[in-house]
Amino acid sequence: MDFGTTLTKLRKELNWSQSQLADKAGVSRVIIGRFERNEALPSIEVAKNIAEAFQISMDQLIGEGQNAKFDKKTLKRIQELDLLEPEKKKTLFDLIDTYIRDAKTRQAYAY
User: Fold this and answer.
1) In the chain, is it the N or the C terminus that has fewer CB atoms within a 10 Å radius of its CB?
2) How far apart are CA 74 and CA 29, in angstroms?
3) How far apart are CA 95 and CA 46, in angstroms?
4) Hey, what CATH topology would domain 3-68 get?
């Protein structure tokens, strides 16, 4: 998916107008329109402001990188997991693994 399509999709998911996004990102409505039509690409600073407005990572905004599928809350939780004591971390990973295993089992039997 190209940048303009991603930007439009994210904006519409929040029911924001181009003007609302422009205000949050600190740019003009006209430039948001140009981004959405793929007539221009934002500077890194503007892309950062847009990502912050949507509360997503830059990876997610451009749809690339290993973190593209994660929102900022999920990424923050993953980073904080690494700070836990080893035993607590193991307990959480065991719990996560159990939920993932159960979800995969349900999917397998649903078809």
Assistant:
1) C
2) 30
3) 39
4) 434 Repressor (Amino-terminal Domain) (1.10.260)
